[in-house]
Design goal:
The complex is a heterodimer of chains A (469) and B (343). Chain A is of the alpha+beta class and 469 residues long. Helix content of chain A is 29%, strand content 10%. In chain B, the strands form 3 sheets. Chain B has a 5-stranded antiparallel sheet with strand order 3-6-7-8-9. Chain B has a two-stranded antiparallel ribbon with strand order 1-2. With 343 residues, chain B is α+β, with helices and mostly antiparallel strands. The chains are: A alpha+beta (469), B alpha+beta (343).
Chain lengths: 469, 343
């Protein structure tokens, strides 16, 4: 039988098929490796991005609780908000303070109380301070104790008003502003109508409901004489004449504590800081001796507290009365300005803490582009990169937290933003949070640098902090 | 021929096996990479979630402190529970009614006494040391230096829970001689109680925790001063007990299988944050009328727009609904950097 010889080679067709199949296998393998490599790279990149976003998220919460974006206790180069600035001659708040005889030096939100608040010394020259001892409760840095009440009887049967309570000029970190303390009852002038732009000629009836100056006044009793008023031409009737009272000085001494606290906190910490420290039911107002040339209203309300002329800036209205927090921040906001990424002078930085930003509809009406709102965000929500140095192919993450007041709400707005290094796309995570307040952040900080220790164990020695008198 | 026809197919199967095995290994390694990466990310995310969950407890604790300043007390140390009477004088004085009387703040707004105190002046707390936190004896909440432990979970059925399903109440329209002809009488109450609960069950609810909501988070409040509180915010399953000893002393060791080491393991996995806060009785801001009205130069005053005015439109800037908080407010909140000795 003839058996065919075993084949020792391949036909051309077989070779071609083999080569083709081989190429397919190699291509598949290469493509598989490529896909796998890309997938791993993508997974790593996404994982890295997620990790950095998480880190940004955590950092934002850290800033919410410790305010380190605004003041870093561990870095003396990042404590710009602890200083003081002489605003004499720089206009604005400096002039408003000088109007009422107060030194035009102001502080920032992290300025220690002991360097700026008028502890144991008068706001004004030659003002009485007898009987004032601050702190009254030196051993109680953590535990509030019963305040020294101005009435030596009970609230239902008061006996005498103690001058010592009014002369207390310092900031007492243990005082709780309790409602049963009559010193907290000031509601200032309920309403004082200006009724016109020309103050001297068109003032109508500035004192409708009584002499509110006696509830809170920077000055002594004999200085409470009000300007004799010109009656507005269209109100020369008997009813109007009734209000043309010539308020004569009396022996009644006005109470001083309230306005000193309001003015003192404002001057020490800026508008945001003042609102943070005072209870929510405070009326932000007070009185001084009548002074002409628009330094006070006819009723003695200082320009500092007047619409468009000082603190109550921006209400745009022509009516003078004490405002509460909602009234103040219904159409505008106060904020804490982040100094870290800003190169403005200390005076300009201080001005940013003694002004408002329009943050309501008006910001659109006036400029059409929410210009003031953008400025507010720019100065309060200054974002800083999470990592000062990182590989070029890593996403760049920046974090910032803004603190401002709007419609009586203390807003803490956090923003985490990251940029894709490949596409350049920018994404953002914004959220609001509840955390440490400004006052809490100040109590976290040791007076002479670093973090203040706090413990409630038996015999624990706690550090002095920024509010320690 | 036989030799050739047998050997070649076997060789091809081996090649395919190698290729398939290689691709499979590739896929497996790819999947493994993803899984490992995902697991790592998930673990890191869990830590973030726990932190957020704990932070949420700060809000819960603040709400609790605000509410407790005004409501929630119906047992007074000086008066046995059975004799709590809502009307201490007058014709109803003899009645024993279980009521939650209103109180007037942690520092009483009327005279500065340490509250909560009822309108009649009954103190809702006692300084008697009756509980132990495993370290020392403490009075019962809400006395100063006492502790409230609040594990968070969802009740199986809340009080007065009503069904989302409308009750079927057809209108009788066939018998025109009937008194209810075409009358929309609600013969079946609508809305109806969830789960056919009796009235008592409906009123009391079912406090049984929904299992999927347990062991998530808790808060714990130490009243360190009349109006200052130390809040511990936790995310984890220890239910707010500081130690196993505390749980055991309060007869609740079985929550942790009566196993100290088990409790310690759970505690080690938790997120815990500490905050100090100060409560204030200030409940509302005090602008007497709103600036929007200035534009009309109206001669209005606080007499027309008193603080509790409610006749303004609800979303108007003059409405105080936005800024009213009858439970008081917080003057400051401070996160602690480290665990305090007492909490």
């Amino acid at each position: 039988m003839n058996h065919p010889l075993p084949r020792r080679g391949f036909t051309l067709i077989e070779l071609m098929i083999a080569v083709l199949l081989g190429m397919l296998v190699v291509y598949t393998a290469v493509a598989g490796f490529r896909v796998a490599s890309q997938s791993v790279t993508m997974a790593n990149r996404l994982s890295l991005e997620n990790a950095l976003i998480r880190a940004g998220f955590q950092e934002a919460h850290h800033q919410l609780d410790f305010w380190t974006n605004l003041d870093d206790p561990d870095d003396t180069n990042r404590q710009r908000l602890r200083g003081t600035v002489d605003m004499d001659g720089s206009g604005g708040v400096g002039d408003r303070l000088k109007d009422i005889g107060i030194t035009p030096t102001v502080g920032f939100p992290f300025t220690p109380m002991s360097t700026i608040f008028p502890a144991n010394r008068p706001l004004k020259t030659n003002m009485p301070t007898a009987g004032s001892t601050v702190p009254r409760f030196p051993s109680a840095l953590g535990t509030p104790q019963a305040p020294l009440l101005p009435l030596d009887g009970s609230p239902s049967a008061p006996v005498n008003w103690l001058a010592e309570a009014d002369n207390d000029l310092g900031f007492d970190p243990t005082y709780a502003w309790s409602p049963h303390d009559p010193r907290t009852w000031s509601r200032s002038n309920v309403i004082e109508k200006e009724r016109g732009y020309d103050w001297d000629n068109e003032i109508g009836v500035p004192i409708w409901f009584g002499r509110y100056g006696i509830f809170t006044n920077l000055d002594e009793g004999t200085s409470l004489a009000y300007h004799t008023l010109n009656v507005k031409p269209n109100r020369t009737d008997a009813e109007s004449a009734r209000y043309q009272a010539n308020y004569q000085p009396t022996g009644d001494k006005p109470h001083r504590w309230y306005v000193r606290q309001v003015l003192g906190l404002s001057r020490s910490l800026g508008f945001y800081g003042m609102c943070d420290y005072l209870p929510c039911n405070v009326i932000y107002s007070g009185y001084a001796s009548f002074a002409d040339n628009n330094r006070t209203s006819a009723g003695g309300l200082p320009r500092y507290f007047m619409p468009d002329k000082g603190f109550l800036v921006g209400t745009g209205m022509h009516e003078i009365h004490g405002l509460g927090l909602h009234g103040l921040t219904h159409a505008q906001s106060f904020g804490v300005c982040n100094p870290e990424l800003r190169t403005v002078s200390d005076i300009d930085l201080a001005k940013e803490h003694f002004r408002y930003w329009e943050s309501d509809y008006s910001t659109y009406w006036n400029t059409g582009n929410a210009d003031d709102l953008k400025k507010l965000m720019r100065v309060t929500l200054a974002q800083d990169t999470l990592m000062k140095s990182s590989p070029g192919h890593w996403p760049v993450v920046s974090v910032g937290v803004a603190h401002y007041i709007k419609s009586a709400k203390f807003a803490n707005v956090a923003r985490v933003r990251w940029t894709n290094p490949i596409t350049g796309n920018e994404s953002e995570l914004s959220f609001t949070g509840v955390g440490t307040t400004l006052r809490g952040a100040r109590m976290q900080r040791k007076l002479d640098g670093g973090w203040a220790r706090w413990d409630n164990g038996s015999g624990a020695m706690n550090d002095s902090h920024l509010d320690t008198p | 021929m036989t030799y050739c026809s047998v050997q070649h197919p076997q060789h091809r199967r081996g090649t395919i096996l190698i290729i398939v095995a290689g691709i499979s290994a590739l896929l497996a390694s790819l999947a493994l990479t993803f899984l490992v990466r995902n697991r790592t990310d998930a673990e890191e995310t869990q830590a973030t979630i726990r932190d957020v969950q704990a932070r949420l407890m700060l809000v819960a604790a603040c709400n609790y402190i605000q509410e407790c300043s005004r409501v929630g007390w119906d047992q007074y140390p000086t008066t046995p529970f059975a004799q709590n009477d809502a009307f201490p004088t007058g014709s109803m004085a003899a009645q024993t009614v279980n009521v939650h009387e209103e109180t007037f703040g942690w520092i009483d707004v009327r005279d500065g006494r340490i509250g909560p105190i009822t309108q009649e002046g009954r103190q809702c707390w006692s300084p008697a040391l009756v509980l132990s936190d495993g370290i020392r004896s403490r009075p019962r909440w809400p006395a100063p230096d006492s502790i409230a432990r609040c594990p968070m979970y969802v009740w199986k059925r809340t009080k007065y829970a009503t069904s989302l399903h409308a009750a079927y109440n057809p209108i009788q329209q066939h018998d025109d001689s009937a008194s209810d002809y075409l009358m929309p009488y609600l013969r079946k109450p609508d809305p109806q109680a969830v789960g056919n609960a009796t009235w008592v069950e409906h009123k009391q609810g079912d406090r049984t925790p929904r299992i999927e909501t347990t062991n998530k988070s808790w808060f714990r409040v130490l009243r360190e001063g009349p109006s200052t509180f130390l809040i511990t915010c936790g995310a984890g399953p220890t239910q707010g007990f500081r130690s196993y000893d505390e749980a055991d002393l309060q007869g609740m060791g079985d929550l942790f299988n009566n196993d100290r080491s088990y409790f310690n393991v759970l505690a080690a996995q938790e997120a815990r944050l500490w905050y100090r806060v100060e409560w204030s009785a200030s409940a509302v801001e005090s602008t007497y009328h709103w600036q929007e009205h200035h534009t009309t130069r109206s001669w209005d005053s606080y007499l027309q727009w008193p603080v509790n005015a409610s006749h303004s439109w609800p979303t108007g800037p003059r409405s105080l609904a936005f800024v009213r908080n009858f439970g008081g407010t917080f003057r400051w909140i401070m996160r602690l950097r480290s665990e305090p000795t007492n909490w």
